[in-house]
Design a protein that fits this description.
Layout (H helix, E strand, L loop, with lengths): L1 H16 L4 E3 L12 H18 L11 E6 L7 H16 L3 E6 L5 H13 L5 H18 L7 H17 L4 H25 L8
Parallel strand pairs: 1-2, 2-3
Length: 205
């Protein structure tokens, strides 16, 4: 509990110091009990809302209804957590706010992509590692009840980029960034499909 409060206050201070109207949610499994996840989410919501209210930020848009909701890798790694995310979004929309959701790749995927890059740069085969990365996304998609066809293009592009790295013996910073971004792109695409299925108005950008 104390750790969570410290983190909430840190986020509040960070948002205020940059003049941002930021709502940040942490739904990491280590912070949520199996029995009380929704109550805990509402608690964190109230803590941060109260914190922002008591620390008004200097912003050129004080009446803006836009809020940013950021979720980490563990927060988007399970269907159960996505149910909580959907519930939080519905609550914010019900308050008349306009949420902008940003989130990380599925927990462990960014590290796996880094490892994949190193293997490709050594000219070694990447098939097994690549299969593991996409298996994680397929399992999440299955649990969410969404189709994986929306992320097949990312898989194909990643394979092409890795083939080029193996031929060249290295990756430029641009290619490196494109490969690492695949994790976020695939995860947000699956998340958007799930939220759309839940009846939320979603625009993926």
């Amino acid at each position: 509990m104390q750790r969570s409060l410290r983190e909430a206050r840190r986020i509040i201070r960070a948002g205020v110091s940059f003049g941002l109207d930021v709502f940040t949610c942490f739904i990491d499994t280590c912070w949520i009990s199996a029995d009380d996840s929704c109550n805990w989410s509402r608690y964190m919501s109230s803590v941060i809302h109260e914190g922002l209210a008591s620390h008004p930020a200097e912003t050129p848009y004080p009446d803006s209804k836009w809020i940013v909701m950021k979720f980490g890798g563990h927060s988007v790694a399970t269907a159960k957590n996505w149910e909580i995310i959907a519930s939080l979004l519905k609550s914010r929309l019900g308050e008349g706010l306009l949420p902008v959701v940003a989130h990380s790749a599925i927990a462990g995927i960014s590290d796996a992509l880094e490892n994949l890059l190193e293997v490709a740069e050594r000219g070694e085969t990447t098939g097994t590692l690549l299969d593991g990365i996409w298996q994680a996304h397929k399992e999440l998609a299955r649990d969410l009840g969404v189709d994986t066809s929306s992320i097949e293009g990312y898989s194909k592009t990643l394979q092409e980029l890795l083939s080029g790295i193996q031929l060249e013996g290295g990756a430029s910073p641009r290619i490196h960034a494109r490969i690492l971004a695949t994790g976020e792109l695939a995860a947000t695409t699956l998340g958007a499909s799930y939220l759309t299925m839940k009846g939320l108005p979603v625009t993926l950008r």
